[in-house]
Write a structure and sequence with these properties.
Layout: E1 25-29, H1 34-45, E2 49-54, E3 59-60, H2 66-80, E4 85-88, H3 103-131, E5 134-139, H4 153-173, E6 178-185, H5 191-196, H6 199-208, H7 217-228, E7 239-242
Parallel strand pairs: 1-2, 1-4, 2-3, 4-5, 5-6, 6-7
Helix pairs in contact: 1-7, 2-3, 3-4
Length: about 250
């Protein structure tokens, strides 16, 4: 997906709107996947210039590698000058139970799902602090509250780690005008999820939801667009469960 590369404009403050916000740079990890593509499109529709970090992204990146991730962060700053909105959507789904898990699998999942976000934010948050504006949004999962299968041990643990990071950074960075939040999707109808889930499993998830329909990537994208907008100026340290009401906290 090509980046939307219009002229640079300063970030806009003090607006309660989902109208376009021209000039804000939004970096999306995992933006080549179905949910990441929907998020990127939603941010473009609200005027953001988007940069996808993925193996096939605007900036090619192996998020399982610290060196590759740090190089991608440097490339973003060199080409685009800054990051105003950071969305961490990338996720490794290696399936292992407690009996099966090994160090290599565990470390790969944590490297992609957790550590890469830290290395990118080390590069991006100094500029956010200087400009007194930033939005950081982690894509987590409602499986953290309702684990559906033992094989998701490493994945669910990584999503729990992101929630801890989200809350810590919300407190740490709030005084600098940086809001840090998360979106937790439920089982979403994507090509990847259809490979590992049957129609019966999708139907079972819908049965547990308050809203009786399959979730789509646009459901997650809409929540992200809201959190990235000035309408969410007072939102930080919060999780929006975009899961049809399966999890109610």
């Amino acid at each position: 997906m090509a980046a939307n590369v219009g002229g640079t404009q300063p970030a806009t403050e003090g607006r309660s709107t989902l109208d376009p916000l021209p000039g804000r740079i939004a970096v999306v990890t995992g933006g080549a996947g179905a949910i990441g593509t929907a998020i990127t499109r939603a941010l473009q529709d609200t005027g953001h210039r988007t940069v996808v970090l993925d193996r096939d992204g605007d900036i090619a990146c192996d998020l399982g590698s610290e060196a590759s991730t740090r190089a991608a962060a440097a490339a973003v700053l060199e080409r685009y000058g800054r990051c105003d909105v950071f969305v961490h959507c990338a996720a490794a789904f290696d399936q292992v139970t407690l009996a099966d898990v090994d160090a290599a699998t565990w470390r790969h999942v944590q490297a992609v799902n957790v550590e890469s976000a830290l290395w990118l934010l080390q590069a991006f948050t100094p500029g956010m602090t200087e400009r007194r504006f930033g939005r950081i949004i982690f894509i987590t999962s409602d499986t953290f509250w309702a684990p559906p299968a033992p094989v998701l041990l490493a994945y669910i643990a990584s999503k729990g780690a992101l929630l801890g990071i989200m809350r810590t950074l919300a407190v740490t960075l709030g005084a600098d005008g940086i809001a840090v939040s998360a979106v937790a999707p439920g089982l979403t109808d994507t090509p990847a999820s259809r490979v590992v889930n049957t129609d019966e499993q999708f139907d079972a998830a819908v049965d547990r939801q308050a809203l009786k329909r399959r979730l789509t990537p646009d459901d997650t994208a809409a929540a992200v667009a809201y959190l990235a907008s000035d309408m969410a100026a007072a939102m930080t340290g919060q999780v929006l469960c975009a899961d049809g009401g399966l999890i109610m906290r």
